């Protein structure tokens, strides 16, 4: 008798424990308990705070230009990766030039990222999506710092500058940002999308035929010589200068870049996009990117693409850089929001041919 009474109590206790475990698992997954997790929506809120909300457009790098062309691989990249993109051949690309910021109608006269995004397709059905900036380093190394950076660098409409009361404590807490600020202050600001070098910034894991893994950062180096904008008179630059220049240049002929694969030396930092790799490195020229068509993004295919840098072909994988996962979830949130907004009547006007909105 006594055994029969004890059994249901034990079973009830077990069921109770399972229910509690499930509740705890739900609470953890929802982020109610445990270490605070940052989701794509948190980052988008910070970007909207910084750049204002522009429905239908990317939450960062909102002002863009679509392009298409080819990547001609010379076979040398096979020494580092089995990705078909490195086998000798020509592969179609579509991509997007952009300038940093959330406002698609902003002026090009700003000392900010000039950027290139690429989608490279190979016959084996693999895709390689990249999003690169014209700087070898990024201001911050993790997503919490990225949010703080967006909040600190919001321009105060009264002064035209970030609020020092927010900026100074941010810089004190994030000394790593200084390397980026110094770079932007000193480096030439390219006067064309065609003469900028575009850097992966993040490191990636390349795997070759022998299963040897190497950490690699890459850059697209232009054939066009680098010439710069006058940083002292950026406010005089016509609003869409870079975009019009690239459309006009492409109408006259193609622009070329060389894909340089830079292999990490022992001791190079691979999990912090704030730290440059300095000194000599093994570098392989893997082929030539040629761009021969460009058009405003509102009328072309790149608008509805998510250049998520974690969509990689076999032979190229993620490194230990935590920014990569943060970028993936944030680009995805930005993409789904802008795609849904475009269905509504509130999408912003076109930037080219919209001079009156300047
Ligand atoms: C190595 C660092 C980074 C680089 C090189 C980079 C570069 C780029 C580029 C080139 C684009 C434009 C892509 C396009 O034309 O569609 C872009 C878009 C974007 N970036 Fe980044 N980015 C970096 C880090 C981050 C981080 C850390 C975040 C936030 C966690 C972020 C948030 C975004 C968002 C929300 C978009 C718009 C995505 C879309 O709607 O398609 N980026 N980025």
List the helices and strands and how they pair.
Blueprint lengths: L1 H28 L10 H12 L11 E11 L15 E11 L14 E8 L5 E7 L9 H10 L2 E2 L4 E2 L1 H10 L3 H10 L11 E2 L4 E4 L5 E10 L18 H12 L2 E9 L19 E14 L19 E3 L4 H20 L16
Written description of the protein model:
- With 358 residues, the chain is an alpha+beta fold.
- It is built from seven helices and twelve strands.
- The strands form two sheets. Strands 1, 2, 3, 4, 7, 8, 9, 10, 11 and 12 form a ten-stranded antiparallel beta sheet that branches. A two-stranded antiparallel ribbon has the order 5-6.
- Helix 2 (40-51) packs parallel to helix 3 (143-152) and helix 2 (40-51) packs across helix 7 (323-342).
- It is globular.
- 35% of the residues are buried.
- The model is unreliable at 344-349 and 354-358 (pLDDT under 50).
- The structure holds protoporphyrin IX containing FE (HEM).
- Protoporphyrin IX containing FE (HEM) binds next to helix 2, strand 2, strand 3, strand 4 and helix 3.
- The site of protoporphyrin IX containing FE has 30 residues, from helix 2, strand 2, strand 3, strand 4 and helix 3.
CATH topology of the largest domain, what is it called?
Catalase HpII,  Chain A, domain 1
| Name of the CATH architecture of the largest domain | Beta Barrel
Hetero groups bound?
Answer: protoporphyrin IX containing FE
Number of self-contained structural domains? 2
For CATH, the homologous superfamily of the largest domain is named as Catalase core domain
Q: What percentage of amino acids are in beta strands?
A: 15-25%
Residue stretches low in confidence (pLDDT < 50, at least 5 long) are 344-349, 354-358
3D shape? globular
């Amino acid at each position: 008798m006594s055994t029969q009474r004890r059994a249901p109590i034990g079973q009830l206790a077990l069921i109770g424990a399972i229910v509690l475990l499930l509740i705890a698992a739900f609470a953890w997954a929802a982020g109610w308990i445990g270490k605070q997790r940052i989701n794509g929506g948190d980052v988008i809120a910070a970007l909207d705070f910084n750049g204002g909300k522009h429905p239908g457009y990317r939450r960062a790098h909102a002002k863009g230009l679509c392009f298409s062309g080819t990547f001609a691989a010379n076979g040398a990249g096979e020494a580092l990766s089995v990705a078909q993109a490195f086998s000798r051949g020509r592969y179609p690309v579509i991509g997007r030039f952009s300038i940093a910021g959330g406002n698609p109608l902003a002026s090009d006269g700003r000392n900010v990222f000039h950027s290139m995004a690429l989608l490279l397709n190979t016959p084996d059905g693999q895709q390689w999506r990249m999003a690169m900036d014209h700087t070898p380093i990024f201001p911050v190394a993790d997503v919490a710092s990225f949010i703080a950076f967006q909040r600190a660098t919001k321009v105060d409409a009264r002064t035209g500058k970030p609020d020092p009361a927010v900026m100074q404590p941010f810089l004190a807490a994030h000394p790593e940002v200084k390397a980026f600020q110094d770079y932007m202050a000193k480096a030439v600001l390219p006067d064309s999308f065609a003469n900028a070098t575009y850097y992966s910034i993040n490191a990636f894991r390349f795997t070759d035929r022998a299963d040897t893994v190497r950490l690699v950062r890459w850059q697209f180096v232009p054939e066009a010589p680098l010439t710069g904008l006058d940083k002292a008179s950026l406010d005089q630059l016509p609003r869409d200068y870079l975009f019009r220049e690239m459309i006009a240049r492409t109408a006259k002929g193609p622009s070329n870049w060389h894909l340089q694969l830079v292999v990490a030396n022992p001791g190079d930092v691979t999990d912090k996009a704030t730290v440059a790799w300095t000194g000599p490195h093994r570098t392989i020229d893997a082929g030539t990117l040629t761009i021969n068509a460009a058009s405003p993004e509102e009328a072309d295919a790149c608008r509805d693409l998510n250049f998520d840098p974690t969509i990689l072909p076999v032979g190229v994988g993620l490194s230990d850089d935590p920014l990569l996962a943060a970028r993936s979830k944030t680009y995805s949130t930005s993409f789904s929001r802008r795609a849904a907004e475009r269905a509504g009547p509130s999408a912003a006007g076109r930037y080219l041919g919209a001079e009156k909105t300047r």
